[in-house]
Amino acid sequence: MSDPTTYGYLGPAGTFTQMALEQWGLPEGAHQRPFGSVDAALEALRRGEIAAAMVPIENSVEGGVSATLDALAHGDPLVVVGEVLVPITFVLAARPGVRLEEVRRVGTHPHAWAQVRGFVAERLPEAVYVPALSTAAAAQSLAVDPEVTFEAAVCAPVAATNNGLEILADDIGDLKHAVTRFVLVAPPGALPARTGADKTTVVLFQHHDRPGALLELLEQFAVRGINMTRLESRPTGQSMGSYCFSVDFEGHVLDERVGEALVGLKRVCLGVRFLGSYPRADEVEVRVSPDISDDAFHEARAWLDALRTPPAAG
């Protein structure tokens, strides 16, 4: 049994992931537990040590977060029960007394580094990038580790404050409207209620790579009027050229069109991993034309059932 009071997140304290968890809104009396990596958080969830875990899954600049996509595609099944969108604002922080011109190496998470390249090229053209597990981990290391190999960290403002660092430059992101999408992951169980503004996530595995194989998968959505919001390929690790597809699309598994699409995917795919149906963070309702409404599917199925039922003897 999982601990119903503990929620995990990609730590340490001060990450954007923790901000997402707090934005989600924890039950009264709940505890937060940071983990050093996405894999560690999701494995703790699989072992039953926590009730759920908040992890990053997509960034408006860099796209999907590979660590999360891969961890959800493999291992014991988990499901997404909700999502949170967090606007991303970065600062460059250093130990008190360090000046901007003294910075030669910068530590941060790879996705953060990708979002501040313009600032670095302009203000720190000679700076070398040092990877960190998270933006907050970079700030924490800078504050407590005397052997740290960088002079400044790219992190959230709260991480700089929490670790007693000075902000050398603020709002340094190249795109001022960058957003990261986070998902709350839990063990399989009761589905979140259908709201009309829902999203579903699946991972699709092909029988084999051949011409038209991807088109065959995409047709399952197109013919049912389902809009995909994300499609990414990820290596399965089985052999060179072996890929699976991680897909987000509009709708809930209880919607008839979505159910029909999943049946079609199950028919043409080697495997379909259902990763959950859950409310959209932006609460935008899905527009459904009359020909793909639940009523339309019910009427078509009733017509087919009538064809298959022999007339009663007179």
What would you say this structure looks like, in words?
The chain folds into three domains: 1-88 and 176-189, 3-Layer(aba) Sandwich (D-Maltodextrin-Binding Protein, domain 2), CATH 3.40.190.10; 91-170, Periplasmic binding protein-like II (D-Maltodextrin-Binding Protein, domain 2, 3-Layer(aba) Sandwich); 190-314, Alpha-Beta Plaits (2-Layer Sandwich). The protein has ten helices and 15 strands. β1, α1 (16-24) and β2 (31-35) form a beta-alpha-beta unit. It has 314 residues and is an alpha/beta fold. The model has no long low-confidence stretch (mean pLDDT 92). The strands form three sheets. Strands 1, 2, 3, 4, 5 and 11 form a six-stranded mixed sheet that branches.
Number of strands: 15
**SS element count, helices:** 10
Radius of gyration: 23 Å
Helix-strand string = EHEHEEHEEEHHEHEHEEEHEEHEH
**CATH topology annotation of the largest domain:** Alpha-Beta Plaits
**N-to-C terminal Cα separation, in Å?**
59 Å
CATH class category of the largest domain: Alpha Beta
| Name of the CATH superfamily of the largest domain | ACT domain
Q: Name the beta content range.
A: 25-35%
Structural class by sheet pairing and helices: alpha/beta
Low-confidence segments, given as residue ranges, are: none
Q: How does the major sheet shape up?
A: 6 strands, mixed
- The CATH architecture of the largest domain can be named as 2-Layer Sandwich
